[in-house]
Amino acid sequence: MSAASPFRERVARALADETLHVALGRATGQLQSRRDVAFASLDDADAVRDFARAGKLAATRALDRMLEEFERRLIANGVVVHWARDAEEACATIVDIARARGCRRAVKGKSMATEEIELNAALQAAGITVVESDLGEFVVQLDRDRPSHIILPILHRTREQVGRIFERELAVDYTPDPAELCRIARARLRDEFLAADIGITGANFGVVETGSLCIVSNEGNVRMSSSLPRVHVALLGIDKLLPTLDHLDAALKVLARSATGQKSTVYVSLVHGPRRAPAEVAPEELHVLLLDHGRTKVLAGEAAEMFACIRCGACLNACPVFQQVGGHAYASIYPGPMGSVLTPVMRGLADHAELPQASSLCGACRDACPVKIDLPRMLLALRRESVATLPQPLALRIALRAWSFVMARPWLHRVARRLARAVARRAAPDGWLRRAPGLLSNWTATRDLKAPSARSFDEWWRNRGAPR
Predict the structure, then answer these.
(1) Domains of the chain (ranges plus CATH)?
(2) How many angstroms separate the CA atoms of 53 and 43, rounded?
(3) Local mean pLDDT, 10-residue blocks, the chain (468 residues)
(4) Residue 196 and residue 317: Cα distance in Å, rounded?
(5) SS3 content of the chain, % helix, strand, coil (to 5)
(6) Among 230, 213, 332, 321, CA closest to 273
(7) Which of 80, 88, 153, 331 could form a disulfide with 147 if both were Cys (CB 3.0 to 4.6 A apart)?
């Protein structure tokens, strides 16, 4: 990877953005501390985490049977079921549903799957107006931006910036007050909920036992999006299944605590089907679209454990790399450690080989994960695959071959070591190298390098004498 790669350029821009650091610092630290407090309130947290993990992995191991059973249950509940192999097919299906029913205005609940397939662009190209109803997504849409976090779409924005966006796009007086900003957004969105004829949401989980969708939110916008329009379309990946309601109970307990530090989200909705008498507020039609879009590639490889992911964002908040560069540096819908695994597997390692390198392998992501996914193991596996299958920089290949040649010859290694030590110590009279040559220049570009000691360890050991 060259120093001029797009990934390095994005990282450099992020590191130079002081406002971004303020926003990230405010959010990630608070989220982590709230998570710790919330888990402390849970009786036998490890047992709950293990049960939630077991449910996800049970659905993964029997995915073909689970999907078929889920479809049967959905149909029995009056749901129309669709399948999509990729983004193009998913977008076409949703556009066709809207057109066939004369829908012209869509209101959307927060959904990373719709971001993944770029649904908004497809709807707008078909002449369908679409409005994001999640507050963060609403700001992102107004600013013609994209989310930087899977739970908090505007984690990269300060409240002062949001105030300027509202002033510019909504022609209101500037205010950085969060309560006032929420009031402005609520007033704008109320009419959109009432005018929309199709609501589009994701789903956090699909419960096979009952053929139900579970959708959680803190703002209530998902309930409005899924109940007021006459047509409701729910898009969920085939990795979102849970076998039973008991597994759902465990997953919900760890999801809210991991995502926002709450014991439970404000709204937990279980959607069983379209309107039934005597209900008056419910959609006339419910369509569920089950999306692959690269997920079977995940299931078929070493990253299959990622099917246990409940999309809580805890690994992002704990990651020291994400804390410094934010989500946009990853150029992926899914940033952070989970995205550094999912994106290369789902979209191809050749185009995203830098993402598995965007980790210190400190293990903080594994510790924070509520379902104990071993993210460092999968990141290392992708690094190995990258080295084995993709061309490596010429300088790196030459350096490694030279290193191998020298290390295989002890006498040459001793000579080279003494020479390198002499040169390095001469260049660092105070004991620190501030500018190193070749591949080491990437290190000294951002930090100093300690110069070698006057004697190597084995020289010291030989002079000391072997122990008895």
Answers:
(1) 42-293 (3.40.50.10420), 394-464 (no CATH)
(2) 17
(3) 68 92 88 91 94 97 97 97 98 98 96 96 97 96 95 93 96 96 94 94 97 94 93 97 98 95 93 83 93 95 95 95 95 95 95 94 96 97 93 85 92 89 86 83 84 83 67
(4) 35
(5) 55, 10, 35
(6) 213
(7) 153
| Residue 377: CB atoms within 10 Å | 16
Coil/strand/helix, residue 81: strand
Residue with tokens 């049960």: 51
DSSP annotation string for 232-250: EEEEEETT-EESSHHHHHH
Those residues with Cβ within 8 angstroms of residue 170's Cβ, 6 or more apart along the chain or in another chain:
142, 184, 188
Q: Which residues of 161-180 are buried (b: 16+ CB within 10 A; e: fewer)?
A: bbbebbeeeeeeeebeeeee
Bridge partner list, 267: 217
Inter-CA distances, 413 with 107, 126, 406, 425, 452, Å: 67, 67, 5, 18, 15
Q: What is the CA radius of gyration of the chain?
A: 26
Residues with Cβ < 8 Å from 148, sequence gap 6 or more? 154, 155, 156, 326, 327, 328, 335
Contact between 106 and 198 under an 8 Å Cβ cutoff? The reply is yes
The pTM score is 0.88
289 touches 94 (CB < 8 A): yes
> How many angstroms separate the CA atoms of 319 and 363, rounded?
9
CA distance 44 to 67: 31
